[in-house]
Specification:
With about 500 residues, this protein is α/β, with parallel strands linked by helices. The protein is about 35% helix and about 15% strand.
């Protein structure tokens, strides 16, 4: 236990505790009130937010999911709630409970923040710590908790503390415009030798771009024997006797962030990518909102910068009308134009010939195309729905293309639908001398549109196939159902051809 003489302020007490924890090599440092307002049972949830979900700071939040306080007078509830609103407006902090004192820090956060230069000692201390962590680029996660009015002790709130918070927030914001957070000191490095590792520490390592990549879990560089790092790094990993798996680029990623994150988001999916050896991703535009405007594109890049654990880029989605925006795209950031030349999810179909001509003639960027002929799919849908109704008339009122047996998927999104669209894309690309990459070809017939007469680096028209289309065929629908339902569809294999699964030794 650390005991101090006299009342020196809430902030200095926490800083004393932080320094003690850092000196004793704790990786996660918790902050909470000792008056039983904070439930100790919530501590594992804060730890999980950092250790499992990838947060740098976890906040036990009273307001992230409504107002979760018990036994508070209404006046105090309103003051606390609107105080957080005030802080958010002034500072721009994307945090609902800006004054919360129930937190978990990774040690690197407290190592990065210059604790000796934290100005505030009262309740504004909580705001300053969150604001500084946010400005340093750390990931902050709010964990909903229920806050119960203290069982022991009395509030130390007074006019002085209240005034510090009100006016201190403004000062905090203004000062951030004119100073580095944390203070810049490039030369302040210390060397520490451990048993098997060499570590370089810097007060601002997670703020600088050169250290930020490591903090996000990215590899800075791979050193050959005897080679020294180009820049000081936090840790050198000695991999003698180990295999180094090279990085993989996934050019066809659907993270569904923003707007469609009920299953996953950029944070969870990028960490999964890194775990599987994928070091760079290219995200698709059919999110919510769709990445079809410059504002949506910039917002997507901001999200990726905040949440992505691997290198990233994203496609700009083409529509029938937005080709005039192509010249404004940064070719060093945008990996290409995503063009839906056929039915798919997201309602991003480009089906006007004039628009297609303008798209192919309007950019030097790669055009990544989803190719399925919409009219062919529409006709096939009408045909097979009618056929099924005639066969099962008692189901007439319940039948549409989504309720047909899974095996019809390959018939509706047919070989002809894919070939007709791919052939048109290749033809337009050749006319415009555009750089075309056809995504997920699913038929042998489409292969006739491509050749290997020139080296890969000179090709203007390329294609890719997905593992699912190589591994499965329509005979797998009865067993696997919706698990192999995708666009373009898993097709029917020609008679006499063995499937990839049959050809692969077990």
């Amino acid at each position: 236990m650390i005991e101090r003489k006299g009342k020196l302020g809430l902030g200095t007490a926490y800083i004393t505790g932080f320094k003690w924890a850092l000196e004793h090599s704790y990786e996660y440092i918790f902050e909470m009130d000792a008056d039983f307002s904070h439930n100790p049972n919530d501590l594992p949830r804060l730890y999980e937010a950092c250790a499992v979900q990838g947060g740098d700071v976890a906040i036990g939040s009273r307001y992230v999911s409504g107002v979760n306080v018990v036994n508070w007078p209404m006046g105090r509830v309103l003051m606390s709630y609107f105080a957080s609103k005030y802080v958010r407006i002034v500072t721009g902090l994307p945090i609902h409970d800006t004054t919360a004192g129930f937190k978990c820090y990774r040690r690197q956060v407290l190592e990065t923040i210059d604790l000796d230069h934290i100005r505030f000692k009262g309740y504004a201390f909580q705001i300053e710590m969150k604001f500084t962590a946010y400005k340093c680029g750390f990931k902050i996660i709010e964990v909903p908790v229920i806050f119960i009015n203290r069982e022991l002790g009395t509030s130390k709130m007074n006019s002085s503390i209240f005034g510090e918070a009100v006016f201190g927030v403004i000062k905090l914001k203004v000062n951030s415009w004119f100073s580095h957070i944390p203070p810049e000191n490039k030369n302040e490095l210390r060397y520490e030798k451990n048993i098997n590792t060499k570590r370089y520490h810097s007060k601002r390592r997670t703020f600088c771009a050169r250290f930020g990549s490591y903090r996000r879990g990215k590899i800075a560089e791979v050193l050959e024997k005897g080679q020294k790092p180009a820049i000081p790094c936090e840790e050198t990993i000695h991999a003698n006797g180990c295999y180094l798996i090279p990085g993989v680029i996934d050019d066809h990623v659907h993270f569904r962030d923003p707007g469609l994150t009920h299953k996953a988001d950029i944070s969870t999916e990028s960490r999964a990518a890194a775990a599987g050896g994928v070091t760079s991703i290219m995200d698709m535009p059919n999110t919510n909102p769709q990445t079809t405007t410059l504002d949506a594109l910039n917002a997507k890049f901001d999200l990726l910068a905040e949440k992505c654990s691997v290198n990233y880029s994203c496609y700009f989605g083409a529509t029938n009308n937005n080709y005039t925006e192509f010249d404004k795209l940064d070719k060093n950031r945008v990996c290409g134009i995503k063009l839906f030349m056929g039915s798919s999810t997201g309602n991003m179909l480009v089906d006007k010939m004039n628009s297609l001509l303008n798209i192919f003639n309007g950019t030097d960027l790669l055009i990544a195309a989803h190719c399925e002929n919409h009219e062919t799919i529409k006709k096939n849908t009408e045909k097979y729905v009618k056929e099924y109704i005639e066969k099962y008339p008692h189901q007439y009122y319940h039948v549409h293309h989504e309720t047909l047996p899974m095996g019809y998927h390959a018939k509706i999104r047919s070989i002809a639908a894919c070939y007709e669209s791919s052939e048109l894309a290749v033809r337009l690309a050749r006319i415009a001398d555009a750089r075309l990459h056809i995504l997920h070809i699913s038929t042998a017939r489409e292969l006739s549109l491509f050749d290997n007469d020139i080296p890969l680096e000179e090709k203007r028209i390329t294609a890719e196939a997905c593992v699912s289309h190589l591994l499965f065929d329509s005979s797998d629908y009865p067993e696997l159902g919706a698990r192999i339902k995708c666009n373009p569809s898993i097709k029917t294999k020609p008679t006499g051809m063995r499937s990839a699964r049959q050809s692969t030794p077990t």
